[in-house]
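Cont'd.
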Amino acid sequence: MPPKKRKADGEVAVAGAARPPSTSLLAALSEAAARPLSWRKVSADGLDVDYCRLLDGALADRTLAALEEDVDYFTGDLAQVFVFGKWHDIPRQQCSFGDAGLSYKFSGRTVPARPWPQSLLALRAAVERAAGTDFNFVLVNRYRSGADHMGEHQDAEKELDPAAPIASLSLGQARDFVFKHRDARRPRPHKRDIPPVKILLEHGSLLLMNHPTNQVWYHSLPARRSCPGVRVNLTFRRMLRA
DNA sequence: ATCCTGACAGTATC
DNA sequence: GGATACTGTCAGGA
């Protein structure tokens, strides 16, 4: 389908009858998810992702404000990672929410899923509608500045449903997201020259990572000194029950 | 100045 | 049970 001009997003929302400022965030998110979305597909060998602007600027602002209010991030052990013989503070803030009984493994430890806060339930419903998939878990990453980042990795844990996409909602500072083919990062004899795929993840955007992307490509969020603002990212997943 | 790459251990998993 | 994966930081080069 033809891509929409970005400007239309905000103006369509304003064109109808004036909405009272008391419109709940839940209702506004529900309405946003019911609108037709303009998806941009990005494909490469083994890579299949879809990108769209799910929330217009004003709604993305409100959503980010609600999350900044509602979400507390891990501290202590859960905010550290053991890499190459040393403990480090992870270069970002992190926490997770999910249905009762779910947990996930990160850096060798099992992290419990907290119960969903209200604002996150509304957001989950909107993302589920846009993605056409039900999710039972979300990992929230908060990048405090352009120095915060995440290294190359795959989301291919055994407990993830391989058939379900992972839906990544971005709020706040736009940042580059980089996919790298697994064969492009092998040691030299067998290294293949496959160019990385970069996508700018904008305020209010939704990225779907479809099968088999996460089995074939690594992804990362590199540091960007010229992007100093706060970014909050939510990756909705479907976990298999143990 | 900024970004990208490779080297760096030890534990866990298959 | 030998091979592979996983994580972040730092130094060096483009």
